[in-house]
Design brief:
Helix content: 25-40%
Radius of gyration: 17 Å
Distance between the termini: 25 Å
Structural class: alpha+beta
Number of helices: 4
Largest sheet: 3 strands, antiparallel
Oligomer: single chain
């Protein structure tokens, strides 16, 4: 799978945490363009690390954030969603020794939260073995159903 091909919700649910998920979130959610993988190296007096390079927000060129494994970077994804008029909710479920995180995202322009009742257009639900992975999967699933 490459980061350019269209993804179904089912495919998103199978992408593990790591560099491919981080690139998907960067391009589809965070606004990066032209991402491509570059092997690190050194030539003349210049050196560069292995990783994703492209045209990022705020003139960034190297994607150093690990959205799917670092909770601080995942909060940036949440902040981006909130700025785009999405609302989110996180749950944690314990199955014996295993903990599953579930992230729900809704469209606040078509409803909202009201006490115990929920009247909103729910865009996505996603699960993961970690909170950052659940957030990334839910964010990707949300932008599949309607860009903000």
């Amino acid at each position: 799978m490459t980061i350019r091909e269209p993804l179904t919700a089912e495919q998103i649910d199978t992408v593990p945490a790591g560099r491919e998920m981080d690139a998907l979130v960067a391009e589809r959610v965070m606004g990066w363009k032209n991402l491509h993988w570059v092997e690190g190296g050194k030539k003349d007096n210049a050196s560069w690390p292995t990783g994703w390079y492209g045209d990022g927000p705020e003139n960034e060129v190297y994607l150093y954030k690990n959205y799917s494994t670092d909770i601080a970077a995942a909060w940036e994804v949440v902040k981006n969603l909130i700025e785009r008029k999405y609302e989110w909710q996180m749950e944690m479920e314990r199955y014996g020794e295993r903990v599953i995180f579930e992230c729900h995202i809704c469209d606040t322009q078509h409803g909202g939260w009201s006490g115990e009742s929920q009247w909103y257009e729910r865009l996505s639900d996603a699960k993961g073995d970690s909170a950052p992975l659940a957030i990334c999967r839910a964010a990707l699933r949300s932008v599949l159903t309607g860009e903000k």
